[in-house]
Amino acid sequence: MDLSGRLDALYERHLTHSEKIHWDYHDLLPWELGRTWRANPWTPQDGTLSPELILAVETALLTEVNLPWFTAGLTRGFAEAPPALKHFIRRWTAEEDQHSRTLEVFLLLTRNGDPVSRNRLRRDVLEIGWGLPAEDLLGIMVYTTIQELATRTFYQNLARVSQPQDPNLARVLHALARDETLHFAFYRDAVAAYLERDPNGLEAVCRVIPSFAMPGAGMPGFANRMHVVERCGGYGLDEYVRQVIRPLLEFWGVFEHQVSRAVEQDRLSLSHHVARLEQVADRSRRRSKSRG
Ligand SMILES: [Fe+2]
Ligand SMILES: [Fe+2]
To answer: What does the pLDDT look like over 279-292, one tens digit per residue?
Structure first.
């Protein structure tokens, strides 16, 4: 099958699977908890979740709200892409559209987090926007694969942390994680199809991974937020390296393909980069273990 046929098949597979896991946000949310804001203004005592968990969910929400910018960027980046990729961006936008809404309404219904300061932050984040992390199609898809898998891993781990505090939140996060799983699988396999056609495309993998930053990285206080998420939300450098980067390198056969001399050099730098990340992750794991 040629590349365009492979991408068509991946898009068809995505449609079939996403129909099977379809969910409606009104079904997932605890509407019975809702109270009017005018008669019951928010107070910090209203929250039911730990401050760390509220911050983690708000961080997820503030990342998802940038969807208009993601769609604008990807539409431009995929302007010359095969039809299946263009169709996918439209479908993906429709599926992502529920994510920020669901998280935001959950926080409002359960009165977790100050709605006024969050709404200001939301506006600031949308004003900051988002720009494409690469200009070439393969580079963009390497980025989106990592980003979707990282988001899936973050939501799954956060769901586990949330379960004892609020099973409703865990259910919401699992639904989002299932969507992210399909998004990640589509991009991962599209990248694999490009690499099969030309293994020197690995240059894009070697270029994108060292500069990878989550799409929410531009939001105010992002580094501090991720620090809290790493300590209490089940997602940090260790999970990024072991549950995101390593599995992708293996799936794409990054160290197995026959490549040109130049790409061989890029690959060497990449393996040093990943080894360094692992060392840092190991050190911080040992430190947090010894702190108990
Ligand atoms: Fe999402
Ligand atoms: Fe996604």
So the answer is: 999 998 888 777 76
pLDDT in tens, 225-239: 999 999 887 899 999
Closest ligand to Cα 91: 2
The Å distance, Cα 156 to ligand 1 centre, comes to 12
With a cut of 50, which residues of the chain have pLDDT below it? Answer: none
> Domain boundaries in the chain?
3-290
- Overall size of the chain counted in residues: 292
Break the chain down into helix, strand, coil percent, rounded to 5.
Answer: 75, 0, 25
Q: Are 154 and 216 in contact (CB under 8 A)?
A: no
pLDDT for the residue 290: 78
Q: Can you name the CATH fold of 3-290? A: Ribonucleotide Reductase, subunit A (1.10.620)
pTM over 0.90: yes
User: Which DSSP string corresponds to 79-134?
Assistant: TTS-HHHHHHHHHHHHHHHHHHHHHHHHHHHTT-S-HHHHHHHHHHHHHH----S-
Q: How far is the CA of 64 from the centre of ligand 1 (A)?
A: 6
Ligand 2 center to 151 CA (angstroms): 7
Please name which ligand lies nearest the alpha carbon of 102: 1
Closest ligand, as measured to the CA of 182: 2
Q: Which H or E run includes 174?
A: helix 167-197
CA of 291 to the centre of ligand 2 (A): 35
Terminal-to-terminal C-alpha distance of the chain? 54
- What distance in Å separates the CA atoms of residue 129 and residue 66, rounded to the nearest whole number? 6
Q: Residue 67: what residue type?
A: L
CA of 286 to the centre of ligand 2 (A): 32
Q: Find the radius of gyration of the CA atoms of the chain.
A: 20
Model pLDDT for residues 161-203, shown as the tens digit of each residue:
999 999 999 999 999 999 999 999 999 999 999 999 999 999 9
